[in-house]
Design goal:
The protein has 197 residues and is an all-alpha fold. Helix content is 66%, strand content 0%. InterPro entries: HD_phosphohydro.
């Protein structure tokens, strides 16, 4: 079930906040396209769909609790629309986007759904180089308050941490499609950032 318009319209307003450049409604639309394509792989697509809409609902680039706040907002706004088990999974999915790691204690089916969501959320890393470069510019714009050298050092560290992972994408489906391009984009971005430090 798609969230009703009385919930979606306020969400769209949130995604249009001035501090956002990448984490905007276009990001949600991009994930919806992946969701529709990957839906046959999902065990509980409704939980994944609602997590998709709310996962960046709260976004302050300088805050450390955006994911928790977004999950809390989902619980407050969607509590009467989702079955308790679906709401619990959507909550876990949103909170997992903080570090893009899979929490322990999930059933195999829920873990699979969460992994597909995390993979979709990082699909931008495998975009065409020009699209990826715009993503990097948009992220920089969201952190405009951070001095340039500090941003470059922190961003380089974040991207290198992704490159050090054995695999960027948890599911075999997404890994086969995106891993190679994502690693090439990340390596190129890290090289550019380090060259300017």
């Amino acid at each position: 079930m798609i969230p009703p318009s009385d919930l979606l319209e306020p969400l769209k307003t949130r995604y249009a906040e001035p501090q956002r450049h990448y984490h905007i409604w276009a990001h949600i639309e991009a994930l919806l396209r992946h969701f529709e394509r990957l839906k046959p792989h999902l065990n509980r697509p409704e939980a994944v769909l609602w997590a998709l809409y709310w996962h960046d609902a709260i976004y302050d680039p300088m805050a450390k609790d955006n994911e928790d706040e977004s999950a809390d907002l989902l619980r407050a706004e969607a509590g009467t629309h989702l079955a308790p088990d679906d709401l619990a999974l959507a909550d876990k999915i949103i909170r997992a986007t903080a570090k893009h790691v899979v929490p322990e204690g999930l059933s195999p089916e829920d873990e699979s759904d969460l992994c597909f969501f995390l993979d979709m959320d990082l699909s931008i890393l495998a975009a065409r180089p020009d699209v990826f470069d715009q993503y990097e510019r948009d992220v920089r714009a969201e952190y405009a308050a951070v001095p340039d050298m500090a941003f470059r050092a922190a961003r380089s560290m974040i991207l290198q941490d992704f490159l050090k992972r054995d695999r960027l994408y948890f599911t075999d489906t997404c890994r086969a499609e995106w891993e190679e391009a994502a690693r090439a984009n990340l390596a190129r971005s890290v090289a550019a950032l380090e060259a300017s430090l």
